[in-house]
Amino acid sequence: RLGSTMAWVFTQRGSRWLRRLTNVYGALPQDVTAAREYSASLQWALEQSVWKALEGVPVGPVDGIVLTGGVAKNARLVTHLWQRFQRPVHVPPLPGDAGVPVGLLYGAYCLPHQPVQFTAPGLSDEDHLEALATRHGAQRVERASPEVVAHALLGGAVVAVVRGRQEVGWYYGLGHRSVLALPVNASAKGKIARASGRPWFAMPTVSIALETADHAFVEEGLVSPHMSY
User: Fold this and answer.
1) Residue 168 in domain
2) Which Pfam family, giving just one, matches this sequence (predicted)?
């Protein structure tokens, strides 16, 4: 208990249902409908597994819920937890396995408070950019400007943006590590999946402007700093 807030910590690792489902996707037709149906099946199985694990867990007079582990990266699941328990849900900045050593270091050395959004290492494969660009048929643009990027997007290109150091935690670069594409570009999803090594059925994770959030979310309380719900 931290002050008046009780933290629930739940991790889900090595799930048999996940292994079984991921072993069959190679035989499915690789089209949009199949991708959506398969992703929805994975989502349903994940949520059912979590609900079963939470059976019998006393809710009690808690003020909030903390979800960690790789399962905490599933925004739909976290949203359903918030709706089910009617309690604020918080996901740590680095909920996966990589966050364990970072947390241990912070606990051991008690570093002074400092902004950490962009204190991760620089581009790890900078020395291999030319080879990667050649492999994926990419073109490097010197002195890129918003106008140059917009022109490339209108031409159907998928644009990678790299600026400075990477963000700590989560895997969205907040503009420092971003992939840009027009949502009306039918081939963008496949290009992004191939470049990032994601399976064909994976739905792309998108960022939207706050001004348009009310068109994508139906719940109140859209302010969500650092993955808080």
Assistant:
1) no
2) Carbam_trans_C
